[in-house]
Design brief:
With about 50 residues, the chain is mostly helical. Helices cover about 45% and strands about 0% of the residues. The longest helix is centred in the middle third of the chain and has 24 residues.
Length: about 50
C-alpha cells in the first residue's frame, strides 16, 4: 500500500504531473549513463550531494 504514503493522491492531476517529472528525470539519467558516459557495469551508486 505504498501509494497511500505519497504526497499527492494517486491518479490525480498533481500526481500525474509529479510522475511525469520523475519519468523525464529517470529517462535523462538513463540517456546520460548509457549514451554519454558509456557505463557498462549495469548500475551506478552515488552517495551524498554537492553544494
Amino acid at each position: 500500500m505504498a501509494w497511500t504514503r505519497q504526497r499527492t493522491v494517486w491518479g490525480t492531476s498533481p500526481w500525474a504531473a509529479d510522475y511525469g517529472r520523475r519519468a523525464a528525470v529517470e529517462s535523462g539519467n538513463a540517456e546520460i549513463k548509457t549514451h554519454r558516459l558509456h557505463m557498462d557495469r549495469g548500475f551506478t551508486r552515488v552517495f551524498g550531494t554537492t553544494n
